[in-house]
Amino acid sequence: IMMSNTALLAQHPPTFGLKGGLNLSNWSTEGEGETEMKTGGHLGLLSHIHLSPEWALQPELQFSTQGAETTIQGTEFTWKMNYINVPVMVQYMFNNGFRIEAGPYAGFLINGKLESENGAEDEVTNEFKKTDFGLGFGINYLSYSGFGVGGRYNLGLTNINDARVNETRNRVLQLSVFYMFDKNHKAKSR
Questions:
Q1: Beta-bridge mates of residue 59
Q2: Pseudo-torsion of CA 123, 124, 126, 129, nearest 10°?
Q3: From the CB of residue 9, how many other CB atoms can be counted at a distance below 10 Å?
Q4: DSSP letters of 128-187?
């Protein structure tokens, strides 16, 4: 088994790429207070590692702007939360370029701000936990040119609210474009 895996890695060495796109984020909250979707983005690096001809592991490193919007006493507020996310996706690759994926992610809070509609900002980083863990589920398409598109839903499993008033979990839909650098790998990865 080890020899066949070594032969597979020699035939398909890890490849690297760039990824970025749109975030549609919100929070799942328990208790009082409804939140609405916030638009943001993500940008990062990825590595694609074949485990077999159909299966691959794809670790990523992303900067991700997340959060939510809410209205308090008639005033609109935006929670601006910046994370470094590290997803590790297991992918099943079809012969037509499509891939389905699922796997865990860890998120590390860089900073958080609460901005009111009049432009005033408050630092809220200390009101939130520094780590977030969850699961991602998605589908991608990789073309022969090396460009691809994908969608992923990140389901936060941990309470990120450090104030312990209401439990709060991240919910993020990511729509991405990506580019794989290795030209020889693109046709084989499909």
A1: 88
A2: -140
A3: 13
A4: B-SEEEEEEEEEEEE-TTSEEEEEEEEEE-S--BTT-SS-EEEEEEEEEEEEE--HHHHH
Pull the structure tokens for residue 7: 């032969």
CA 63, CA 43: separation in Å to the nearest integer? 5
Q: Indicate the helix (H) or strand (E) that contains 107.
A: strand 98-116
Query: In which element (H, E) is residue 72 found?
Result: strand 55-72
* Closest residue by Cα to residue 91 from 122, 115, 128, 56: 56
Q: What DSSP state is assigned to residue 14? A: -
pLDDT by 10s per residue, the chain, length 190: 454 445 444 467 899 999 999 999 999 987 666 899 999 999 999 999 999 999 999 999 999 999 999 988 888 999 999 999 999 999 999 999 999 999 999 999 999 999 998 888 999 999 999 999 999 999 999 999 999 999 999 999 999 998 767 889 999 999 999 999 975 555 445 5
**Collapsed DSSP state (helix, strand, coil) of residue 51:** coil
| Cα 76 from Cα 54, distance rounded (Å) | 47
- Report whether 83 contacts 110 (CB < 8 A): yes
| CA Rg value for the chain | 19
User: The tokens 């691809």 sit on which residue?
Assistant: 148
